[in-house]
């Protein structure tokens, strides 16, 4: 296998990679702006230039220096090469590039949303000069509203052209262009054409500085206060890997996590901004019983006791139970709810709730696919229920619901999902509803128990390609809401008069494999990879 030496470290690599890729794959930092793994290589920022020595085949393969600095993002890695990014020539280039980039930069870090995750800040500190030598008037560039989600602060732009290449190569929509020349060069949109494609906000993620900013996140939170929790798209069937960024129980934004097998580096705007229902002011917060006055917060334990008691009583006296489990639930939610209801009635009819669709699947030129199916776990819920026996779809459920007098129905959709046919079919039956948002069915239920959204619990989703992916809980459930898995455990414990156990996803996986032959939940689940903690190089002193 070929080897290359970078800053004194010998590394094996696969042929076809450039020097920068080899370095980044092996944890060696080389400063770069224009390079991105998902975009074409243009080598226009010049900060990654390095001193390269290579074997000369015309001189018995003796190691000789290449006379000029080479862009590591564009230079193929070669066997026997020796690369220095910390040599005097390389360091002088890095300082020069940083000085040029900062000549007209406003240096408004205190009011910039990118502060704390800005490569211009980081590289200025690591590779730049300690003092500016430019004393002339800075050129001012305008702030532009380029689309429904994106603001462009032109005077912060360093012309890496990542965003332009993204709209050309990934989305194929070509909204962004480069206009002007020299120091007045800037990014813009074609006249009358806004940056308004389904992946538009990804340009915010790939911008290495504070030029492209998210309108929705603007001035909301300093990034160093945010906690990142790995999660999975809970809106569609794509299974996109995301990070939920939150602070003090409040979600502020969703960002993509790189997964080359699923979503690469991108997510849709639909997923990025579709979480707002988590903090909807109308969220269901307390259990409710039909015909009784609503409980207030100080009566929450009493409310749960009453709701659980009535639900268990209704299930125990049932002359046939039908359970409709939402495709918005996790696999663990579905498993425990099915197990709970089958303990009351072994002949319970199990069905998967309605699976929303919107439009058609769409694949972009860059290979990313946006799916029309708007449920994250229809396949996972069906897989789990099939482990207990026959499982029906929503239409079959409506056709056979007349044979049952007791119903367990779960929602957890981001909007009102209840159809008139379902409301009509539930009339006159004892109905237990677990949901997150108000619906006509929730208003008429005999027992209503507030559930938790996917951001408020841990579990597993199965995406459109049958890939099982685990996600973690980012924030606690709203007020007195609970995950459906925990509600199921509470109801099972109430039935036998025991103390309920606390829900734990991995222990449920063990049980699923051992008692129902679902071994894939021990062997096939893809867990999020944990990022290494970054140690600060700032000196901390006691006051």
The biggest beta sheet is recorded as: 7 strands, mixed
Which architecture of the largest domain does the CATH hierarchy give at level 2? Answer: 3-Layer(aba) Sandwich
For the termini, the CA-CA separation is 53 Å
Counted beta strands? 25
CATH class of the largest domain: Alpha Beta
- Structural class assignment: alpha/beta
**Shape verdict:** elongated
Task: Trace the largest sheet across and list its strands.
Answer: 15-23-22-21-16-17-20
Secondary structure: helix percent: 25-40%
At CATH level 3, the topology of the largest domain is Rossmann fold
Strand content: 15-25%
Radius of gyration (CA) equals 28 Å
Averaged pLDDT, please?
92
Ranges where pLDDT stays below 50 over 5 or more residues in a row are: none
**Please, how many domains?**
3
Oligomer: single chain
Instruction: List the total number of helices.
Output: 15
In short:
This protein is α/β, with parallel strands linked by helices and 543 residues long.
Give structural attributes.
Ubiquitin-like (UB roll), 6-stranded mixed sheet, 7-stranded mixed sheet, Rossmann fold, 543 residues, single chain, 15 helices, alpha/beta
């Amino acid at each position: 296998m070929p080897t290359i030496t970078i800053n004194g470290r010998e590394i094996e690599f696969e042929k076809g990679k450039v020097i920068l890729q080899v370095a980044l794959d092996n944890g060696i930092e080389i400063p770069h702006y224009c390079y991105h793994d998902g975009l074409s290589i243009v080598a226009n920022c010049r900060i990654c230039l390095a001193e390269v020595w290579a074997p000369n085949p015309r001189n018995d393969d003796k190691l000789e220096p290449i006379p000029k600095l080479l862009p590591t993002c564009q230079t193929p890695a070669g066997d026997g090469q020796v690369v220095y990014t910390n040599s005097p020539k390389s360091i002088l280039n890095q300082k020069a590039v940083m000085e040029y980039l900062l000549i007209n930069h406003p240096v408004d870090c205190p009011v910039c949303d990118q502060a704390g995750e800005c490569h211009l800040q980081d590289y200025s500190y690591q590779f730049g000069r300690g003092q500016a030598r430019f004393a002339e008037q800075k050129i001012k560039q305008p702030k532009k509203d380029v689309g429904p989600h994106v603001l462009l602060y032109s005077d912060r732009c360093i012309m890496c052209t990542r965003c332009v290449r993204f709209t050309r190569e990934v989305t194929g929509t070509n909204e962004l262009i480069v206009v002007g020349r020299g120091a007045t060069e800037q990014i813009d949109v074609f006249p009358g054409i806004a940056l308004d494609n389904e992946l538009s906000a990804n340009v915010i993620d790939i911008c290495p500085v504070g030029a492209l900013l998210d309108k929705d996140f603007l001035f909301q939170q300093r990034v160093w206060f945010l906690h990142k929790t790995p999660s999975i798209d809970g809106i569609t069937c794509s299974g996109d890997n995301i990070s939920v960024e939150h602070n003090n129980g409040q979600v502020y934004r969703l960002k993509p996590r790189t997964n080359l097998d699923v979503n690469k580096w991108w997510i849709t705007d639909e997923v990025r901004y579709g979480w707002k229902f988590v903090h909807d002011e109308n969220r269901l917060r307390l259990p409710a019983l039909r015909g009784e006055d609503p409980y207030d917060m100080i009566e929450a334990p009493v409310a749960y006791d009453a709701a659980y008691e009535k639900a268990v009583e209704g299930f125990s006296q049932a002359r046939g139970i039908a359970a409709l489990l939402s495709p918005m639930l996790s696999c663990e939610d579905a498993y425990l709810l099915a197990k709970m209801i089958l303990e009351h009635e072994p002949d319970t009819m199990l069905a998967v709730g309605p699976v929303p669709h919107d439009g058609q699947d769409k694949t972009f030129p860059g290979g990313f696919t946006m799916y029309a199916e708007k449920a994250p776990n229809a396949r996972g819920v069906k897989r789990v229920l099939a482990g207990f026996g026959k499982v029906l779809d929503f239409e079959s459920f409506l056709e056979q619901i007349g044979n049952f007098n007791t119903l367990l129905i779960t929602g957890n959709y981001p909007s009102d999902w209840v159809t008139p046919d379902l409301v009509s079919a539930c009339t006159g039956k004892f109905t237990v509803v677990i949901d997150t948002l108000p619906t006509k069915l929730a208003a008429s239920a005999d027992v209503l128990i507030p559930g938790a959204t996917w951001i408020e619990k841990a579990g597993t989703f199965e995406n459109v390609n049958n890939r099982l992916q685990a996600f973690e809980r980012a924030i606690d459930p709203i007020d007195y809401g609970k995950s459906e898995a925990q509600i199921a455990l509470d109801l099972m414990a109430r039935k036998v008069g025991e103390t309920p156990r606390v829900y734990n996803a991995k222990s449920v996986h063990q049980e699923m494999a051992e008692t129902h032959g679902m071994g894939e939940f021990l062997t096939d689940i893809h867990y999020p990879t944990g990022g290494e903690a970054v140690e600060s190089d700032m000196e901390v002193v006691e006051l």
